[in-house]
Specification:
Blueprint: H1 12-15, H2 18-31, H3 41-54, H4 60-69, H5 71-81, H6 92-108, E1 112-116, H7 123-134, E2 143-149, H8 152-160, E3 162-164, H9 171-175, E4 185-188, E5 191-194, H10 196-199, E6 202-206, E7 218-223, H11 232-245, E8 246-254, E9 268-272, E10 277-280
Helix pairs in contact: 2-4, 3-5, 4-5
Length: about 300
């Protein structure tokens, strides 16, 4: 998937008026069932502009006409709008915190249910499974990971568990969080294949965190770097869905640049503010966390 960080929106002179852009968003929301109203306008403009360049459309009007008439372009735009920026063990300090959570849960729970929400191509769920297998203080047989995403192509990649290294993506570096990741990943030149042992703990399903209802009974939900793209008016309802999916005292991990809205602060207790680790329903046990917590 395309990472929108490097995309510059086309300027007003080259793309036409805002009305045509609004028409595109309305079409995507009403006809393609993608909730554009929940996302930041700047993010949506970058994604649409990227597709305009690829299809050589110089105006919003021209692109709108192409979009309405071309089902392949509709699929391509939906895929571009899906947020699939990911990596193995992204932000290693956060993964040290996740390890602490899994150790605690493994000590007390017969089965530890983990939801990796908006998991993109599956590298986060597989990281969770690898972490469980790698740590002797975690009972890997008790860990059950569900990875969900809105993008079917991303989920197809996730289920295969095969990743190709590129000039801009160093998979060896990503996996170096583990001392010997080759126990869990078969490497053939630039192709990395997740082992069946790791796959057994992970399953994948399609879920739209914006439109679909909550799940239930999870001990840990990991949903990182999604909310930075979401309009503030809709973050609360999405986090409420997550909160309702957690067991009492279950844990939530969000992105390091994200925060819990003030209206939901009472539903979560901060465990490690710097790492954005929270616990449901305010009965957190903070013993064992580093002392450098700050206000969230």
């Amino acid at each position: 998937m395309i990472d929108g960080a490097g995309d510059a929106s086309l300027d007003a002179d080259s793309t036409g008026d805002d009305g045509a852009f609004t028409d595109i968003l309305t079409f995507v929301e009403d006809e393609l069932a993608f909730a554009t109203s929940h996302y930041n306008d700047s993010y949506l403009d970058r994604r649409v502009s990227s597709r305009m360049r690829r299809t050589q459309c110089e105006t919003y009007e021209a692109y709108f006409e192409k979009l309405r008439a071309n089902s392949d372009e509709q699929k391509a735009l939906l895929e571009a709008l899906s947020i699939n920026v990911t990596g193995f063990f992204r932000n290693p300090d956060v993964w040290s915190g996740i390890r602490t959570i899994l150790r605690r849960l493994s000590e007390t729970n017969g089965t530890v249910r983990v939801w990796s929400a908006a998991c993109a191509d599956g590298r986060e769920p597989y990281s969770l499974s690898m972490l469980a297998h790698d740590d002797p203080q975690i009972d890997d047989s008790s860990i059950a990971v569900l990875g969900t995403d809105i993008s079917e192509p991303a989920l197809e990649t996730a289920r295969k568990g095969v990743y190709e290294e590129s000039r801009t993506v160093d998979l060896d570096d990503q996996l170096s969080f583990l001392d010997d990741y080759h126990r869990y990943v078969d490497v053939d030149e630039r192709t990395f294949r997740i082992s069946n042992e790791i796959k057994r703990n992970v399953r994948f399903r399609r879920h739209d965190l914006i439109n679909d209802g909550p799940k239930s009974g999870f001990d840990l939900v990991v949903c990182r770097n999604l909310f930075i793209y979401i309009d503030n008016a809709y973050k609360e309802s999405m986090l409420e869905t997550i909160a309702r999916s957690l067991r009492p005292d279950g844990y939530l991990v969000i992105g390091k640049a994200e925060t819990i809205p003030p209206t939901l602060k009472s539903a979560f207790t901060v465990c490690e503010a710097r790492l954005r680790i929270y616990q449901r329903d305010g009965e957190a046990t903070h013993a064992g966390w580093p002392d450098h917590r700050s206000n969230s």
